[in-house]
Each structure stands twice: as structure tokens, then as C-alpha cells.
Amino acid sequence: MSAALSAERIQQILEFDNDQRLRYLVKQVVEHQEVWILCDEHGSVMLNSEDEDCVPVWPNREFAESWCDEEWQDCHPKAIPLKQWMSRWIPGLEEDQLAVAVFPSDQEDGVVLYPEELEYELRQQQKKMR
Length: 130
What we know:
alpha+beta, Trna Endonuclease, Chain: A, domain 1, four-stranded mixed beta sheet, three-stranded antiparallel beta sheet, 5 helices, 7 strands, 43% helix
């Protein structure tokens, strides 16, 4: 489980561009062994990007929680253990032909990746940390 982020650190991270946000997410997920999603009574919430239906993911609870307002006020953040993400979510997303919106912000959808692309990035980071 990750330690709580300071307000100053959260602000710094929110100023990252999409590529920096992707790299940050990959490092955090591998380091803390969890991916954060938002859920409602029906399960994981979805975003619609330009061409894809996506499951949004975040690196830390604080960023996922910040999306629990307005249309998603009935949602709650949920941590998915990395092993479960790799063994169940990645294949499930592929089967359902869903993409992943990596660390979306208020202004942008984040980097949209296919599940196997995110899996590749996570596995590369795991190799670096060995």
C-alpha cells in the first residue's frame, strides 16, 4: 500500500504531461503492487475516449478519489492487486475489447493503451526493479 501524498506532491504530479503521467503510473503500480480504479454499484466505471471505450486507472488512491464528484459522486476508489490485474483484468479487458485510460486528468483522457500495451510497460518496469 502506498503512503499518502502531500498536497504539494499531488499538485506537482497533476502538472505532468501524459507521457510523464504514464511513466509515473507504471512506476507506482509496480512499486506498490496495486492499480486504482473507480467502482459503482455496477462495477468498474468506464470512459469514452475518441475511438475507444476505456477503463480509467490511476497510480494512487488520491487521484482516483478526486474523480468521485459530479457524475461519478456515487463511485469509490478500489485497489486491484497487481497480480490480479495482470492475470484477470488484462485478459478480461482484451476479451471485452476495452482499452485503458492511463491516469486521466480533468483536462485529458490520459494515454489510451490497449491492455497488452499496459501489460508490456508494467512487465518492463518489473524487470528494472529486480
